Every structure is written in C-alpha cells, then in structure tokens.
Amino acid sequence: MQLYASLPLNLQALSVNHVFALELLACSAIVVKLLVMRRRGMRTLEPFPGPPAHWLLGHVKEFHQDGHDLEKIMKWSEQYPLAFPLWFGPTLSILIIHHPSYVKTILTTTEPKDDYAYKFFIPWLVLIIVSVIYFSVFQDKWDVYAKSEESFELFQHVSLMTLDSIMKCVFSLNSNCQTDSGTNPYIQAVYDLCHLVNVRFRVFPYHSKAIFHLSPHGYKFRKATRIAHNHTVEVIRKRKEVLKIEKEQGIVKNKRYMDFLDILLSARDEHQQGLSDEDIRAEVDTFMFEGHDTTASGMSWIFYNLASNPEHQEKCREEILQALDRKKTQWTDLNKIPYTTMCIKESLRLCPPVPAISRKLTKPLTFFDGRTVPESCIIGINIYGIHMNTTVWENPYVCVFDPLRFLPENVAKRSPHAFVPFSAGPRFVEET
C-alpha cells in the first residue's frame, strides 16, 4: 500500500523534471541557433572590421539615447573610413557605409528597402510648397516669441505649420492645426510612433512580434497607430463625401490641378479596378508622415542654423527681399536666391532630416575596393556620416556653417554622392 501511495508523488516529480528538462533543452536549442546565425553573419562581414560587439546584445548597449549617439558613430567612422558592421542583438547585423564611392555602388541600384527595420513601421505605414496663409499664422505666433527675447523650441510649431500646409496643398483640407488648443493628437501620435519604433529596434526581445505586442511599449504603439489611422480615415471620408456630392449634383469642379488624394481615388488599373480603402489609407499615411515630418525637421534646422549665424541670415534676408520685391512668388524666383539656396544646402548637410536609410540586397554586391557582400545583407547608408566625411569635406565638424561649400566650382570638385540629404538614384526624394 505504501508503494502505491507514493507512486503519484513520484510521477508528479518525474513530470516536473521532464518539463524542466524540455524547457532547458528548448532554451539551449534557441541559444545554439542564435550562435550559429551569429557566426554565419560574422563570416559574411569578415572583410569589414568594426568595433567590438557583445555576443548577445551586439552594439545596442553602446547607444544611450543621450544626444551623443551620432558622435559615437562618427568616431567609429573615423576609425573605419569606408564601412563597418553594427550588431543589434546576436543575429541582426547592418553594414554601415559612409563614403561617396561606397554609397554610389548601392544607391545606383534598384535594391529594395530592408524588410527588417522597415517592418516595424508596417502597422502604421503600409518637398511641400508652404502655403502663405498658414505661414502667416506661423509668423504671428513667432512675433510673440520674438518680443519675449527668450529661447524657445520651434520644432513643434514648424510641425504644425507643415501639417497644415500638406493638408491644404495635397488634400485640400483646412485642418487649422496651429490654432487648435492643446497638443495636436496626430502630431503627438507621430512623435510617439517614431520613438517607439526606435525603442523596438534597440531592444532585442521586442524584435519578436508577440513579446512587443504584450509589452507596455506595444500597447502605446497600438494606441498611437489607431490615432494616426483614424486621422487618415477621416481625411479620406471627407473627400469621398465631397466627390459624392459633386457627382450627384453634376458639379464639375474647376481645378488648376488634381491633388494627391484625387489621384488615389481616381486611379484605375488595366481592369478598371480602383484602389481599396486600405490601399488608399496606407498611401495617405506614408505621404502624410514623409511629407510633413521630414520637412518640419529640415526647416527647423535651417531656422536654427541661420539664427546661429546672423551674418548669413542677414544676407539671405536681403537677397530674398530683393528677389521677391513684395510680389507673388513664382517657381522661377527660386533661381534668384542662390545664396539662400547654398545656406539651405549647408544646413541639410549638417542636419539631414533623415540621418540614415537602408537596403537589403537581393544579389551579391561588390564595392570599388573589391570587397563583396552577399545576398540578404542589410546595408545602412549613413547620410550624416557621408556629410561629415573628412576625406570629402574640409572642416566638416564643429558645426562649421559654410554655405560657400556649395558654390558651383566647389560642387564640381566633389562626388555627386557626397551630398545626399534626399537619397539618390532610383529612389531619390521618395526615400526620405
């Protein structure tokens, strides 16, 4: 009887031991798989020496989001002048390139954006002429700050202005973002999404869709995504209502041009099938973000750099006043402000709106020095590093603001791929 009485306990203990052994075996298999994948990746990038990396975390622990991460990358760029690998976790490696000759090799191809980093944007995301009306609102707000004679953060204000402008010029809607009280929910959602994508990329466990979904950051990401999507759906809904009314009443709207949303709604394939609501929303989401966020970033840095260099700011002001002479601005007037154009380019060199982009190779690629990377390798184009490359630019550091770098005779001495704030090649501008 004692033997039978003790049997269930022994079976229970045996079951627990088996479960523990299976869990240990599964964990060991995962670790072995990660090590094998890491060794394979290390062999792939063996021709490209780089900074030492932790076997599990890679270089993630080197980035602290303290405002000095770009400085660290630039330090490595000096140590490894053409290219070097960065590891994010034990298996994800990106070959960072920052020399015009290397950049030319990849940007002149039609290789796609990498499907690893960009996939973090997928739940959210499947140069604009600023409206004079919205700039006047923007200018009125700035007059108040100017009279206070105190420093202030302008990016939020520029973001609201560019969103107002893109809504009006591209979607024909009066959004009044600048005059809304409080924080604009769409703008805040864009900020949150950008931050959360960055967090997910840096935290290796978050590369797992399931783990990220269950995390607090995943919850915030889904909430911000809903806000961004609802904003886009509302834009599309209002336009469809307008088009429906026009069609019912037989109104022919005289337009000087079709805006972006008109083109999407009227697009038809060879079978006369239009885009689905989901397709239109994805296109609008992408255009809304790319159109206003990067423009706002570029404009903010231009204003900052001019304010920090009043002698250049005054020259730009005099040139613009003389060229425009209080008349209505035309495209041809842009040719009359060469010094202002050079200042804009110098600001974009120092502070590119998108500091890096990436590609995933569909076939082996050989660089000018004979080194080759295989299919599936992810290439990171360090735009900031290219613009600060000491082999290309004289005194690029310490934020030396020198618009004369872009005099025609100086530009002719450099590679066309030494200045790529909006990418280059087949994906020029669309990239950023």
Automatic annotation (TrEMBL):
Keyword Iron: yes
Enzyme class: oxidoreductase
Transmembrane segments: 16-36, 82-100, 120-138
InterPro entries per the UniProt record, alphabetical: Cyt_P450, Cyt_P450_E_grp-I, Cyt_P450_sf, Cytochrome_P450_Monoox
Stored Pfam families: p450
EC annotation from Swiss-Prot or TrEMBL: 1.14.14.14
Reactions that this protein is recorded to catalyse: testosterone + 3 reduced [NADPH--hemoprotein reductase] + 3 O2 = 17beta-estradiol + formate + 3 oxidized [NADPH--hemoprotein reductase] + 4 H2O + 4 H(+); androst-4-ene-3,17-dione + 3 reduced [NADPH--hemoprotein reductase] + 3 O2 = estrone + formate + 3 oxidized [NADPH--hemoprotein reductase] + 4 H2O + 4 H(+)
Signal peptide positions (record): none
Keywords: Iron, Membrane, Transmembrane, Transmembrane helix
GO MF entry, a single one: aromatase activity
Family: Belongs to the cytochrome P450 family.
Biological function: Catalyzes the formation of aromatic C18 estrogens from C19 androgens.
Protein name in the entry: aromatase
Organism encoding this protein: Sinocyclocheilus rhinocerous
